[in-house]
Specification:
CATH architecture of the largest domain: 3-Layer(aba) Sandwich
Strand content: 25-35%
Number of helices: 9
Structural class: alpha/beta
Helix content: 25-40%
Distance between the termini: 33 Å
CATH superfamily of the largest domain: NAD(P)-binding Rossmann-like Domain
CATH topology of the largest domain: Rossmann fold
Largest sheet: 7 strands, mixed
Order of helices and strands: EEEHEEEEHEHEHEHEHEHEHEHE
CATH class of the largest domain: Alpha Beta
Length: 337
């Protein structure tokens, strides 16, 4: 029996994504074979295809940073999951496929009642926002924060979780997406036409407590400029080049050697212990079950139409999340949810 996956054959546009067939084998000892139900499409997937970041896997390989699925078979010695369990994982690669094989210790059980399309967005996008808010800086009600890149998958997670935490929020997004920011009580700014540093200094002359930046190194200076003394800027996401990585380190070292009273921190899921990831995923599943968060799903595509999903995300026209789904979960393939 075979299954299909989507492979990056070389660096380039969505056309380099090709469908290939693979043999469906029994799971090895300690791993589970999982039928994939949902995959969250993220900027890391696009970067892996385009090749605009350092430290990337070399083609050919199957992209896909997250997945949610059902355990179809378990190898010898597997005790943490059983056949029929819904599970999810942060995979980094390998999820653009109908099946995946993963070690059991990478898997977290997912409550059966959750919508797979919504739940899979918690595995990366909401996890980043949750951990930055509650582990990296430990926000308190009434504090003030700017979200740079507030309309994407991680940005809208920051909006929802920040509102839930009682923060006063500001956000950068293009004008067509400002209504979404306003829905969550955030004050929107157009990063194309407005000098957000000047506007924020007028609105908050004492400065902000936090800036959360997911849009690149060129926002670091301006982000630090709107912080109060004692404030913190958290930059999340991989650098787009070795030069950007070096620039971040230089700025970080400079702030350490010549203190300004402001702090620069970096966040990446690769630095977090799996036990903490699982703990926070369970907290997020509970928030979703209780209706306290509601992921915005901009579009749903069949798994094997990943090229279309990648293209849409890369266009910059997306508010919220793009997901890939198993065909049986799609009522209207490729249409906005």
């Amino acid at each position: 029996m075979n299954y299909k996956s989507v492979v990056i054959t070389r660096r380039g546009g969505p056309e380099v994504l090709q469908i290939v067939e693979n043999d469906l084998r029994p799971p090895a000892a300690g791993e589970a074979r999982i039928k994939i139900l949902a995959v969250g499409v993220c900027q890391d997937d696009v970067a892996a295809r385009v090749g605009n970041r350092p430290f990337l896997t070399k083609p050919p390989f199957v992209p896909g940073y997250t997945m949610l699925g059902v355990v179809e078979a378990a190898g010898d010695g597997v005790t943490q999951v059983t056949v029929g369990d819904r599970v999810a994982a942060l995979t980094t690669t390998g999820s653009y496929a109908e099946f995946i094989y993963l070690p059991e210790d990478k898997l977290v059980r997912v409550p059966a009642g959750l919508d797979p399309a919504e739940a899979v967005t918690l595995i990366l996008n909401y996890l980043v926002a949750y951990q930055v808010l509650h582990r990296t800086v430990q926000v308190k009600p009434g504090e003030k924060a700017l979200i740079i890149g507030a309309s994407g998958g991680v940005g809208t997670a920051f909006l929802q979780l920040g509102k839930l935490a009682g923060l006063k929020l500001y956000g950068l997004a293009s004008p067509g997406k400002h209504a979404v920011l306003a829905d969550y009580g955030a004050v929107p700014f157009d990063y194309h036409t407005q000098d957000f540093v000047q506007v924020l200094r007028q609105a908050e002359p004492a400065g902000l407590d936090y800036v959360f930046n997911g849009m690149g190194q060129d926002y670091l200076g301006r982000g630090l400029a709107v912080l109060r003394r004692g404030g913190t800027l958290v930059h999340y996401g991989a650098p787009q080049s070795l030069a950007d990585f070096a620039s971040f380190l230089v700025r970080f070292i400079a702030l350490s050697l010549w203190p300004t009273g402001k702090t620069l921190k970096g966040y990446g899921t690769h630095t977090v212990d799996i036990k903490l990831l699982k703990e926070d995923w369970l907290a997020l599943f509970k928030l979703l079950e209780e209706g306290q968060i509601k992921p915005i799903i901009a579009a749903r595509f069949p798994i094997l139409e990943a090229a279309r999903a990648d293209s849409l995300l890369e266009s910059g026209a997306v508010t919220g999340n793009v997901v890939l789904l198993a065909p049986e979960l799609l009522a209207a393939p490729g249409q906005p949810a």
